[in-house]
Amino acid sequence: MPKTLSIVWIHVIWSTKNREPLLVKSIRYDLFNYLKSYSEQNGILLDTVNGVEDHVHLLLRLKPIQSISEVMNSLKGASSRWVNLVGEFEGQFKWQNGYGVFSVGEEHIKKVRSYIYDQEMHHKSEDYRSEIMRISKSSSLP
Does residue 131 lie in a domain region? Predict the structure, then answer.
């Protein structure tokens, strides 16, 4: 059987339930480290992760045997369980249902990485809803 070559990059965005600004810096960076560690332990090729108080951005490379929905269910499920274990929230922490996923061409990887790294600065001038609408209409970043 021939070897399979698969280079499928995706940019994924998801929000806290009701876009509540629960991901304060003190937990956000620990969450991102948890996502990196969890991904590594579970064969998920997580390249870049960052976000702000109400949402998370990831740059992932899918393996041929992985589906987007399986990877996302795994990441969102594990991370919400982790946040509920370590977070100090009234009630239960939850992610929104669903996520946004956008394919990324090889020539745009550096641009997407930079965009994800600069989330705090970027969201000083654009809110989450506007960001999602812009990306989904044009499939491009600033």
Answer: yes
Domain count, the chain: 1
The secondary structure of 22-46 as a DSSP string is ---HHHHHHHHHHHHHHHHHTT-EE
Contacts of 135 (CB under 8 A, 6+ apart): 13, 100, 102, 141
pLDDT band at 116 (very low <50, low <70, confident <90, very high): very high
**Residue-number span of the structural domain to which 113 is assigned:** 8-138
Please list the helix, strand and coil fractions of the chain in percent, rounded to the nearest 5, in that order. 45, 20, 30
User: Does residue 2 fall inside a structural domain?
Assistant: no
CATH code, domain carrying 46: 3.30.70.1290
Phi/psi of residue 103, nearest 5 degrees: -70, 150
In a domain, 3, yes or no: no
- pLDDT tens column, 26-79: 899 999 999 999 999 999 999 999 999 999 999 999 999 999 999 999 999 999
- Residue 18 CB contacts under 8 Å (≥ 6 apart), including other chains: 96
